[in-house]
Amino acid sequence: MRVGLLALAVALTSLAIQTAAAEAGPLKAGAATSNITPQLGGKIVGGFKPFPATHIHDELHARCLVLDNGETRIALVVCDLLGLHRKVSDEARRMIQEETNIPRENVLISATHTHSGVSALGGNRFKIEQDLDDYQQFIARRIADGVRCAINLLRPAEIAWGTVDIPEHVFNRRWFMRPGTMPPNPFGTTDLVKMNPPAGSPNLVEPAGPTDPGLSFLAVREPEGRPIALYAAYSLHYVGGVGPGHISADYFAMFCNELSRLQDADHQDPPYVAMMANGTSGDINNINFREPRPRKAAYEQMRYVAHDVARKVHSALAGLKYSGDVVLASRYREPMIGTRRPTQDQIAWAKETLKNAPEDRQDWNLSAIYADRVMQLIDAPETTAVPLQVLRVGPATIGTMPNEIFCEIGLEFKERSELKPAFLVSIAHGYLGYLPTPRHHDLGGYETWISTNRLERDASVKMLNELIEMTKELAASK
Question: What pTM, to 2 d.p., does this model score?
Answer without folding.
Answer: 0.93
